[in-house]
Amino acid sequence: MWIDPFLISRKMRESIDMLNIVQVVGYKNSGKTTLMKQLIQYFSETKVKVGTLKHHGHGGDVNLPKGTDSASQFEAGSLISGVQGESITQLTFHNLEIDELIKMYTMLPIDLLLVEGYKRADYPKIVLVKNREDLSLLDELSNIIAVGTLDSALMIDIGYPTFDLNNLDQNITKLASYITDK
Amino acid sequence: MWIDPFLISRKMRESIDMLNIVQVVGYKNSGKTTLMKQLIQYFSETKVKVGTLKHHGHGGDVNLPKGTDSASQFEAGSLISGVQGESITQLTFHNLEIDELIKMYTMLPIDLLLVEGYKRADYPKIVLVKNREDLSLLDELSNIIAVGTLDSALMIDIGYPTFDLNNLDQNITKLASYITDK
After folding, report:
1. Mean of all residue pLDDT scores within chain A
2. Does B92 contact A96 at a Cβ distance shorter than 8 Å?
3. Contact B108 A109 (CB under 8 A)
4. What domains can be seen in chain B, in order of their start residue?
5. Membrane-spanning residues where (chains A, B) (predicted)?
6. What is the pTM of this model?
7. How confident is the model at residue A1 (pLDDT cuts 50, 70, 90)?
8. Average pLDDT, whole number, for chain B?
9. Per-residue pLDDT reduced to its tens digit, A110-146
10. What is the pLDDT of residue B181?
11. Which residues of B fall within a CB distance of 8 Å from A47?
12. pLDDT digits 0-9 by tens, B8-65
């Protein structure tokens, strides 16, 4: 039997390339969390296996419940503490760069990773704008595929496909196509 | 420049092989959680980068705090929900086979993975026994490197290096050497 020497490396590369990654970014109260939830539901219903990653942007920290085994192992010096329960596994670790973090997601059986936040990362982005001032984001950020807004007055002359977040139920299929076809 | 076609595959393989994995197993109340903590502290102090994984064996589930973004995304259908805070990241997902889970750990900068539980997995094991009945574990389990017990009467004729968990402070260096040198 002839074994392709590139097989393992190609398999590895393909698994990273084949994970479709899209970001939802915008300032506070621009509608990110709601849009994320709508997209998760839409894709789950269409049998796309979705994973999510959220940057907790309010200066807070993730809550590691005191007294749990995970907290106790983490405090003792474990750099990554994992607990597997009856149906759910939870891993807790010190922050990594987003690219390193995404390598962990490539080990899981998902097709699409929706990322909330991390404006400065370079993955394809849906940018949410809530007023005219927010439009400066469109000049600052890379790799924009669509723009969403709660203010329909902003839906002219933006230069990107634009979606009214108030009527997203009617347009989510179209927005989803920008994610799957890009 | 000549590029070794096996380079990426070898790098991948090495990163998996080079993660030292050791399990701590035993029945309930045999001292697993305490030994895990002692080992984490010992290795952290000796600059070994430790990660941990615990199988929550009491029929309970991992607690996913209601009302958090992570819980909300998970309930909406996300198969893996991650939240990055100021210093800590937490990933929540449906259980995987232990070998798949360990692939995620290989993406992180750790040298040693201490696994609590998963008796039937095949990684090198420290088996904890609390009474004579527990000794049957030594016939049932694979890949045993050492035995620990809180009952010094069990420390004869076991056929494996055996450690008194009551006096572990004095012997932890020796136990650790079974982990690092195996």
Report:
1. 87
2. no
3. no
4. 7-58+97-181 (3.40.50.300)
5. none
6. 0.85
7. very low
8. 87
9. 999 999 999 999 999 999 999 999 999 999 999 999 9
10. 85
11. none
12. 444 444 555 679 999 999 999 999 999 999 999 999 999 999 999 999 866 666 777 6
* CB spacing of A90 vs B62 below 8 angstroms: yes
Cβ contacts (< 8 Å) between B76 and chain A: which residues?
37, 40-41, 44
Q: What chain A residue is nearest to B46 in terms of C-alpha separation?
A: A77
Interface of A with B in 93-122 (CB under 8 A): 93-96, 100-101, 103-105, 107-110, 114
Residue A13: list chain B partners with CB under 8 A: 8
Residue of A nearest to B51 (CA): A80
Q: Which long-range contacts (CB under 8 A, 24 or more apart) does B128-132 make?
A: B128/B24, B128/B25, B128/B26, B128/B27, B128/B30, B128/B31, B128/B32, B128/B35, B128/B165, B129/B26, B129/B30, B129/B154, B130/B26, B130/B27, B130/B29, B130/B30, B130/B31
- Chain B residues with CB inside 8 Å of A61's CB? 85-88
Q: What is the ipTM score, two decimals?
A: 0.85
Answer whether B158 touches A (CB < 8 Å): no
**Would you state the structure tokens that stand for residue A17, as one six-digit string?**
């390339």
| Chain A from 58 to 77: CB within 8 A of any B CB | 59-65, 68-70, 72-73, 76-77
pLDDT in tens, A3-35: 444 444 444 445 556 799 999 999 999 999 999
Instruction: Assess A159–B contact: CB distance below 8 Å, yes or no.
Output: no
Read off the DSSP letter of residue A136.
Answer: G
Average pLDDT in the B148-152 region?
94
